[in-house]
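Lab meeting, item 3. Inverse folding demo.
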């Protein structure tokens, strides 16, 4: 989503289980657009296994959130 300046308002949150984190964001802020995936990693990997994620491989589950600051602020997303 873009604000009046055309700038996207995007936040990415790393988590151990992105499905659970996505569920919580969508429960409290149903207007968000969320996308889940992986971030970081010691080498490029498109689809890491659960074992790789849990083994210290360096991959983190992540939730990318597009938001409209007129409806929800970044401060609200981080729980301030």
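The presenter then showed the designed sequence:
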């Amino acid at each position: 989503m873009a604000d009046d300046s055309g700038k996207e308002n995007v936040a990415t949150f790393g988590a151990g289980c992105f499905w659970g984190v996505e569920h919580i964001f969508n429960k409290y802020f149903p207007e968000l657009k969320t996308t889940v995936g992986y971030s970081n990693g010691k080498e490029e990997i498109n689809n890491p296994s659960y074992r790789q994620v849990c083994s210290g491989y360096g991959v983190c589950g992540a939730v990318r959130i597009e938001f409209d600051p007129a409806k929800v602020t970044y401060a609200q997303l981080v729980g301030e």
